[in-house]
Amino acid sequence: MMDKKVLILSFSSRKGGNSETLAAAFAKGAQEAGNQVETVYLREKQYGFCKGCLACQKLGHCVIKDDAVEIAAKMHDADVLVFATPVYYYSVSGQLKTMLDRANPLFGTDYAFTKAYLLATAAEDGPETVAGSAKAVQGWVDCFPRCELAGTVFAGGVTDVGEIAGHPALEKAYQSGKEV
Q1: Which of 26, 98, 119, 150 is in Cβ range 3.0-4.6 Å of 177 for a Cys bridge?
Q2: 113-135 per-residue burial string, b: 16 or more CB within 10 A, e: under 16
Q3: Given this model, what pLDDT does residue 2 score?
Q4: Cβ–Cβ under 8 Å, residues 78 and 113
Q5: pTM of the complete model
Q6: What are the two backbone dihedrals, phi and then psi, of residue 85, each rounded to the nearest 5 degrees?
Q7: If you classify domain 5-178 with CATH, what class do you get?
Q8: Where are the domains of the chain?
Q9: Share of the chain above pLDDT 70, in %
């Protein structure tokens, strides 16, 4: 079996935040299964909003010269995409939404990814808490016919950094990583 290129995009604004910890559990499982794993911490990157000019559809890359261009290229070449985000107001973080918009140059290309995963954390613990985030990511995935949203791992009831310790979602993220 050939190993897969797994790209984890961490949208936690806090170093060591709960969604970042969830991403680390997924990464550990994926690495132990023999996959190549790269984690990109978006809090360390500079990228702006999509301008809606659609030049990317003609050029194959965005005309805005920032870190989103390199991140979108990494997304293009990955076999598996993992989006790790805190849930804000029942949806994905603004950072994730901005990057999904900036990944528009991937539309219509011969992208490699066939699976995407959503890893999400929130202060609220209800099952409906993650529904808006899942819908947002599913909407993006639906634009890429060869890709499926293969799984969602949600850790609710975690607010402060480190509160996720011992949460059952960590094991679920680890197992999801092993099964990519």
Answers
A1: 26
A2: bebbbbbbbbeeeeeebbebbbe
A3: 61
A4: yes
A5: 0.96
A6: -145, 145
A7: alpha beta
A8: 5-178
A9: 99
